[in-house]
Amino acid sequence: MAIIATPQQLRQIYPQPRERSLKKRLARLDPYARRFLELSPFCVLCTQSLDGRADASPKGDAPGFVRVEDDAHLLIPDWPGNNRLDSFSNLLSNPAVGLLFLVPGIDESLRVNGRGELRDDLELRQLFARGERLPLTVLRVEVEEVFLHCAKALMRSRLWGGEYRVERSLLPSMGEMIKAQTGSADPAETQEQMLERYRKTLY
């Protein structure tokens, strides 16, 4: 096995992209991207620290939870989570972000790259109010490039077809896995206990 270390070596394996693949990259959100965002309940936020440590974090809510402020800006609410703040800590030193949006039932995905800033403006947080609850912060992303990604990965994974769907019981509960990983002496939280706790703190 040989390590691929240069662009020239890489292009010896992979052909040049088709012209369409290059021309589909846009600098702004067009009507198709906007519609995709309206339908999407899930995205992955990718960031990188100043020293090169990468992170990918899932974000999800009802379809359209990521709002289009205008054709060059997106707003993403942040609700209570595990408080590790990996992505947001990265943003403080390196504002580059990559976003991958999925829509259940659609094999194509939407990719958005840009620069993010974390805001706690009350007026922005109020846009996402759930009753009396507000997100803790809002990530405002300045869009630099946006493009649709082909369906092949989701077709291969059959993500929406159900053929590869597994029963939750094939993995231990999250509590059991973390107890084993951390060596904690505390009793493992059951899956039912975890889901009940999540229901109380989802927003």
Task: State the total count of DSSP E strands.
Answer: 7
Helix-strand pattern: HHHEEEEHEEHEHHH
Strand proportion, as a percent range, falls in: 25-35%
- Relative helix content: 25-40%
Arithmetic mean of pLDDT: 95
Based on CA inertia axes, which overall geometry fits?
globular
User: In which order are the strands of the major sheet placed?
Assistant: 2-1-5-6-7-4-3
Q: pLDDT below 50 for ≥5 consecutive residues: which ranges?
A: none
Q: How far apart are the first and last residues' alpha carbons, in Å?
A: 48 Å
Q: How many structural units, i.e. domains?
A: 2
The major beta sheet can be summarized as: 7 strands, antiparallel
CATH architecture of the largest domain: Roll
Looking at this protein, list some descriptive labels:
single chain, 203 residues, alpha+beta, Pnp Oxidase, Chain A, 7-stranded antiparallel β-sheet, 8 helices, 7 strands, 30% helix, globular
Describe this structure in words.
β1 and β2 (54-60) form a beta hairpin. The protein is of the alpha+beta class. The chain folds into 2 domains: 8-162, Pnp Oxidase, Chain A, CATH 2.30.110; 166-203, no CATH class. The chain has 8 helices and 7 strands; from the N terminus they run αααββββαββαβααα. The N and C termini lie far apart (48 Å).
